[in-house]
Design brief:
Blueprint: E1 3-5, E2 7-9, E3 12-14, H1 17-26, E4 34-38, E5 44-51, E6 56-62, E7 72-78, H2 82-94, E8 99-103, H3 114-134, E9 142-146, E10 159-163, H4 172-177, E11 184-189, H5 197-205, E12 209-211, H6 220-236
Helix pairs in contact: 2-3, 2-6
The structure holds S-adenosylmethionine (SAM).
Residues 163-165, 167-168, 189-190, 192-195, 212-214, 216-220, 223 line the site of S-adenosylmethionine.
Length: 237
């Protein structure tokens, strides 16, 4: 069943223009069709279409099942080639992250400034919204940009994990760190060029715990998906 994020007032549902088009023209919805709605308080409901033109949608009943992870997960992702960033936003959303923090790594091939980021943010938010609706989440991840690692202090979590390529090997530290429950967990993944020694030292100073993602050196987008799969698997087992 299709899910949409919408505003709900007095049991009446107000969809965004794009979603109205998607529901009426792409999905060719009809009266009495049912859809799922998530309101601005992240509560999910079953709703029914009461009219098509104009579109009328009414809330029927709450959906009690929650799709969110028990801990708030943050992905720090070093700026990489643009298609990789979009892929990682989509997959990280499906894997339950609450925050995606893109950062300018010293070895990032792509160089962003705030203006570049604000120009791309609407597309990134649309990718995250579509992925959240597709996997039936109640949240759409927040997407932020930090000009350097030195700016990520405010985004730190209770447990902060540093996937360092020079530690590639056994994954025991990764799994043992996840045995305890934390309200918030972050994982930082470097860009195509990885981390330089000063960045690694800085992350250690910030209290990040080094973890290996196995013996092979993964592409940054694979590393993000692998790490978030391990975290969400551990949170939902
Ligand atoms: N240029 C680096 C090199 O050749 O060693 C590789 C960087 S890798 C493409 C991008 C990021 O993925 C790394 O900075 C790290 O965060 C993560 N990564 C990839 N494989 C990893 C592994 N086996 N263990 C820990 N982190 C890994």
């Amino acid at each position: 069943m299709q899910r949409y994020f919408a505003n709900v007032k007095d049991n009446i549902v107000y969809l965004k223009e794009d979603d109205i088009f998607h529901l009426t023209k792409v999905m060719r919805a009809r009266i009495n069709d049912r859809i799922e709605i998530v309101d601005e308080n992240h509560c999910a409901y079953l709703a029914v279409i009461t009219s098509i033109s104009p579109l009328g949608i009414e809330i029927q009943e709450p959906i009690l099942k929650n799709s969110e992870l028990d801990s708030e997960v943050t992905l720090f992702f070093g700026l990489a080639k643009l298609d990789k960033i979009e892929l990682v936003i989509q997959k990280a959303t499906e894997l339950g992250v609450k925050n995606i923090v893109l950062f300018q790594g010293k070895r990032s091939v792509v160089k962003f400034n705030e203006t570049d980021f604000s120009r791309k943010l609407p597309r990134y938010n649309a990718i995250a919204k579509e992925a959240s609706e597709q996997c039936h989440r109640e949240y759409i991840p927040n997407i932020k940009f930090r000009k350097s690692l030195h700016e990520i202090k405010d985004d730190l979590c209770e447990l902060n994990l540093f996937a360092y390529e020079l530690d590639a090997g056994d994954t025991s530290s990764f799994s043992s760190l996840l045995e305890k429950h934390y309200n918030s967990i972050s994982i930082i993944i470097g860009p195509e060029g990885g981390f330089d020694s000063s960045e690694a030292a800085f992350l250690k100073e910030l209290g990040f715990n080094n973890v290996s993602l196995g013996k092979r050196i993964l592409r940054c987008e694979t590393a993000a998906i692998y790490a978030l799969s391990v975290i969400s698997f551990n949170l939902e087992k």
